[in-house]
Amino acid sequence: MQEIILIKNGELALKGLNRATFESVLVKNIKRRLRDLGHFVINRSQSTITIEPTGSDFDTDEAVERLRRVFGIAAFQRAAAVEKRMDAILETASTYLREDLAGISAFKVESKRSDKTFPLTSPQISAEVGGKLLEAFPHLHVDVHHPEKIVTVEVREHAAYIHCDQLKGAGGMPVGTGGKAMLLISGGIDSPVAGWMMSKRGIVLDAVHFASPPYTSPQSEMKVHDLLEQVARYSGDIGLYTVPFTEIQEQIRDNCPEALFTLVMRRFMMRIAERIARREKCDALITGESVGQVASQTMLALGCTDAAATLPVFRPLIGMDKDEIIVRARQIETFDISIRPYEDCCTVFTPRHPRTRPSLSLVEAAEQKLNVEALVSRAAQNAKFEIIRNGR
Ligand code: ATP
Ligand code: MG
């Protein structure tokens, strides 16, 4: 008996002709994610991917933990792989499933036979395996309607697989199948979640962060770094551009009406992010905005922000409540980092009475006082680049 991992790729099954491409991106991502865990081979057949250790060094427990964070995997399981002989199947079922079945009383067996040359039919396999398990574990009984656990036997091309518990995958699409986009990341709760959500749709992330030293501290840059490391556990490596934003913020403060500070600042963010995004061949921008959350996120304010960008702006949190966003932030383990108490450039020079119903012409008039192009191109040029690696 050998323990392997079986991966069923949910949404990919729907992709028709593209499926092969999507699967090969997924396999590549899995290989990269598991590569330092020992020797293994990956096989694909019939919409199932199998990961088989080829040496005793393979760390299956850690592999399972990492696979939970690979997008494109709907569900997966650990399974025993055995020779396609009934005696081997029966023997392995009663040893391999011992722990799984210890704490329950009702179970049932389901069998699937894709190898039609196997001498028993699926119901016959189920009946034999069920009988064997009842004999081996007298505390059990079969309940086909309300089983606490379902034992599955799959007789496939190369081997038979026996497994019990299905593990939930991260879902979504394999990263790399959806192109690349630029995430505007603050140190807040929302933007890391927004990046995670788009990465889940198969998009590779680059990120841009605006820092305004000395108004913002090195700790707030560290925070962004740590947040992206968490996101990178799902998305893979992220290229981070840290943009010096102090000069722009001071110019806005000195030249624009206070009520428009935040909005003008956000429009600068869009322009600079877009400049870097185009250079890096990103096809969209991503922000963590949600309608109504703050004054700069009313529908009209978002419209003014949008008008500064020509790339599409994705706002995956647009209709979410803060508490829904927080649930997600906790799940992806960014929340505790986000609530570290450091300033973001958005909290520098905040207007006392920001405009919630701005008009674009008003905002554009305010910007006339600034040399927008020069400021944007200087900031984009002076951005500092680093790669945030997928730590684990
Ligand atoms: P978050 O938790 O993302 O900070 P927030 O409620 O604080 O959200 P704002 O500060 O108004 O929202 O920012 C809205 C969006 O603008 C953020 O989600 C992010 O995409 C972008 N943003 C804000 N500050 C920065 C920054 N310093 N660098 C890069 N992007 C930023
Ligand atoms: Mg913020």
Output mean pLDDT: 93
Strand content range:
15-25%
The second-level CATH architecture of the largest domain is 3-Layer(aba) Sandwich
CATH class of the largest domain: Alpha Beta
Query: Quick one: how many beta strands?
Result: 15
How far apart the termini lie comes to 29 Å
Query: How many helical elements?
Result: 14
Which sheet architecture does the biggest sheet show?
Answer: 9 strands, mixed
Structural class: alpha/beta
Fold-level CATH name of the largest domain: Rossmann fold
- Give the tally of structural domains: 2
Oligomer: single chain
Assign a percent range to the helix content. 25-40%
Tell me which ligands are bound: adenosine-5'-triphosphate, magnesium ion
